[in-house]
Amino acid sequence: MVERWIDRAKALHAAQDAISDIMMASPEAPIFTASWDVLGGYTELLAKALGDEGGWLEWFLWDCNLGDNPMEMTFPNGKKLTVLGAAELVDVIHQ
Fold first, then answer.
1. What's the rounded Cα separation, in Å, for the pair 77 and 3?
2. Structural domains counted in the chain
């Protein structure tokens, strides 16, 4: 489920970039706002299904740029993990 979410979010980013280039539309254009609202709802539902109470999906989406900007996080026991993709993200959620 997480891999599919990542793939779909990346596809949305790519589509927005392509449409912006063709139509010179701003990121605040209604079509983009609606698309990101749908992704936000999808993210919320997935977070609930996975028991993501820490907001890790949102963190991965925005701060890690869906894995394009891997970040390191620290578990409460002091163990560190660089979150590169779906497998690490699930590990963080289920800490």
1. 27
2. 1
Domain with 39, as residue range(s), is 2-93
The 8-class DSSP code of residue 77 comes to T
Instruction: Please say whether the beta carbons of 57 and 47 come within 8 A.
Output: yes
Q: Global pTM?
A: 0.85
User: What residue type is 1 in one-letter code?
Assistant: M
* Cα–Cα distance measured from residue 81 to residue 10, given in angstroms and rounded to the nearest whole number: 23
Question: How does pLDDT run across 18-67, given as a tens digit for each residue?
Answer: 888 787 777 777 888 888 899 999 999 999 999 999 999 999 999 999 99
Q: What separation in angstroms does the CA of 47 have from each of 54, 61, 67, 78, 81?
A: 9, 12, 17, 24, 20
In the structure encoding, which two tokens stand for residue 45, read together? Answer: 């539902």
CA angle 12, 15, 17 (to 5 degrees): 110
- 22 exposure class (CB count in 10 Å sphere: 0-12, 13-18, 19+): exposed
Q: Which two three-digit tokens encode residue 60?
A: 């991965």
